[in-house]
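re: that chain from earlier
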Amino acid sequence: MVAPALIPKRPGERIKTNRRDAVTLARLHRAGELTGVWVPDATHEAVRDLVRAREAAVDDRRRKRQQLLSFLLRHGRVYSGGGHWTLAHRRWLARQSFEHPAQQIVFQEAIDAIADADQRLRRLEQQQRAAETCTWLKPMVDTRGNISSAAVEPGQRRPLPRQRTGSGKRRSGGAHAG
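^ sequence. v structure.
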């Protein structure tokens, strides 16, 4: 299987006909200029879905935390005891109360939403750890013991290739291979 983005094309070659495409592909195949791609099987796709779900859970928790901090800031509540989301910060949050019942409800809902997001993330991480014990998945596990999203999502996080300019110097950028 060949990815369409990896098929070499000359500038200005925009006419699309099935016959011309077939001839071009045959010529490139004979010359060995086509790059094959790996198509993941159902098991790999399932693990990729799990990794995507975990990344979405991390983003969701980050947004919920930011919403709570923004709410507190709007009401002049700023934690000055160090970093956020530490044990001391959570104790400070537990001591917060608001005079107006509507504000207390919004505050408590935000706290509950963060707790739900934390539980969701823990469940997904537990499932991910269980999936990491599979022997075929060992090459995708990073040094911290997590499934590497770069390995699971091939081609998503590649740097731009370096090209030589006419003067022989290297520069970053140019045609991206993915």
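The chain has a mean pLDDT of 80.
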